[in-house]
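Memo to structure team: turn this sequence into structure tokens by end of day. - J.P.
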Amino acid sequence: MSRTIKTIAIRIASTSALAATAFTMVVANPASASPLTDGISATARAENGNGACAHGGYDGGPNQTNSCSGGVTAHAWCADFAGWVWSRNGVTGLASLDDRAASFMDYGKKYGTISSTPHVGDAVVYNYNGSNYADHVALVTAISGNTVTITGGNQGSRPGHVSTYPTTNWHVGDRPFGQTISGYVSPAGSSTPSLPNPASLAEGTLVKSASSPSVKVMIKGAGLAVAGSDVTPGKYDLSKVVTIDDQAFRSLSSAPPSGTVVHDQAGGADRYVIIGDAALKIGGADWVAGGYNTRADMGVPTAWLKAAAQRTVATGIVVMDQSGTDPSRYVMVAGSALHISATEWTANDYNEQTLMGVPAEWLKGVVAKPLQAGTVVMNQSGTDSSRYVMVGGTPVGISATEWTSVGFDKLSLMGVPGGWLGSAVTKQVANGTIVKDASGSSASVYVMAGGVAAPLTSADFTGFGYDQRPLEGAPAAWLNTAVTKAAPANGTMIKSAGDATVWEIVGGKKRAMAATEFGAGKRSFADVVGVGSAFTAKFPTA
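Reply from structure team:
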């Protein structure tokens, strides 16, 4: 399958062709440093390794849209990242920018800041067609002698990430990594140069803008909201709030960089590590084994931490056990961690993504967590064009007709490792899963028992408490097969209302089970599936 189709599988827009090697650029007569340019450099570099959904996504100018949607990359986002960095540093005139890399040339034309010489803080534009299109835009973040350092978003292999590279090939017309440098665009200035740059403030500084009563605390370059309920227990001194530019205040990252260790400022022994915009609890054994005890431990507002701890790590993030005890790699999909085989690690380019170390205890939990119902998936490698929807922890096939007629094509399509998918499709939908036709053409409801969809009457549906469980939509073609299947798998235990007997299915027949078969170390009543009496009556007694 082509690279383009692979990309569609995980709903990710194209990335820059810039490889994860040296980038190219320099200047003969560099501009002197300034609070504005130093701030742009510091802000951009602090994002290294982050993807499109870091801090909930990047967007800077009022006409730029967020780089993240529903936990996945929304579109090509190099311009969003550059605009976000400029906005955090109070650069003026950002209404000229949109999601196109070429909009930075529009900005330069409007303010007369296009140059063939790079300066720290400049946007560098590639493959500009002279009108409305350019392939890529990044930022100049350092100049030393004949070496220019560039930081950009949406770089490297798909999905793109923020990366920084030095280069000595910087002239307009040079083609580093196959993309022609078209020019450099300097920011026109800061809208409020008299106000401090938030990137220059000390950790723990409280900040606000002149137009809002909201207060944030600076943690690793991010601005975390301080709720009213946080002030007293967190001992935040509101008499020491620093006023910063309004646009810079609004553009502050909402989460510290990935890998930051945090705790509740109001107290408590629990520690967390930030991955994207989620806070993952660090288990006691992980604190030392994962090396978290060697990192700075930052106090954060209680309300912010509570919300961050409830978030899931964004889809597409590649993770591993920080302690190294488990050498396996996993990719996050809808809150679950799916194993990546050694072959797929390189074949599907997972090795070119930033690998995030996470607490071992947390990782075990998300590895064991079934992929949530209704998630639509396909093989990330593209070797299998089939589509599947998760039902009761198992991916079940979606027919070509139902793909569009039922509206599965309108849902986010997640690329998953082929090895994981191949194993998962062989498993039965979990016993006790309540299903119905996803198309809505039938009101019938079924309970899964040993791979068979057993019909339920209204009395059974409520009598067994199934009305308290999620009702999962399944493709009609798959459901019809499950309904007509001859008998549940051997070992399936069923029970009907009004009948005290628990039956075990063996070879298509039912066997009455004795009370002595249940208990510690034996069978569990929790595994018995409640079914209609007509379903039980179908099977002869063994």
